[in-house]
Amino acid sequence: DIQMTQSPSSLSASVGDRVTITCRASQSIGSYFNWYQQKPGKAPKLLIYAASSLQSGVPSRFIGSGSGTDFTLTISSLQPEDFATYYCQQSYSTPYTFGQGTNLEIK
Amino acid sequence: EVQLVESGGGLVQPGRSLRLSCAASGFTFADYAMHWVRQAPGKGLEWVSGISWNSGRIGYADSVKGRFTISRDNAKNSLYLQMNSLRAEDTALYYCAKDLSSAMIPLSLDFWGQGTLVTVSS
Q1: pLDDT band at residue A69 under the 50/70/90 scheme
Q2: Side-chain half-sphere of A51: how many Cα atoms within 13 Å?
């Protein structure tokens, strides 16, 4: 199975900050990679698919990049509604594995 | 508006069975792959199983292979998960999710239900 390792596991930031979350795959997965956001008590929401494609309706401050084994989610200017948990996921092969999550908290 | 409504969860004893259902509306169900993803209390996300638009391709997590069976009825716009030989570690909120594509590979889950809770305990 492909292992996905996210860092950091938690992050404190302020509104307006630029933040970066990274994810590393245990083997090359090309651009078969997604980012999701989950708020407490809610279902996850797709933010980025195919490593860098912005899902419809998602603000442009969310930027995905990377290919192969290393991927990054950047939020260019944090908004109050962005404080949540973020998960990466490989979509290269089954079983489709998620990272352990990054909890983004308000500083 | 896309809607996915899961049902069938509940409290069940170890070793018993449960069948989850997901009723879909607001899109052409038969055109898309569908998946089950679970989340144990306070934990992260785990992909459980997926099925392509025509049931021609099916996949399972190693943790449920041989115990769970995914199926779909395109005429009824419904997705199912038959769960047998349930274990305590299967306790989780089970989400039904729609894929962006029909084929199940690559996977991108663009709509999710609110989940149904399965608790396995004696």
Answers
A1: very high
A2: 16
Q: What is the mean pLDDT of chain B?
A: 97
Contact B99, B89 (CB under 8 A): no
- Provide mean pLDDT across the span A41-68: 97
- Our CA dihedral for B95, B45, A36, B54, rounded to 10 degrees, sits at -50
Q: Contact at 8 Å (CB) between B20 and B83?
A: yes
Backbone Cα Rg of chain A: 13
**Contact check, Cβ <8 Å, B62/A95:** yes
DSSP-derived letter for residue A9 is S
∠ Cα A74 A80 A81 (to 5°): 75
Q: Select the residue from A91, A93, A98 to test the B interface by mutation, using most B Cβ atoms within 10 A.
A: A91
CB-based contact B47 A96, cutoff 8 Å: yes
Contact A38, A100 (CB under 8 A): no
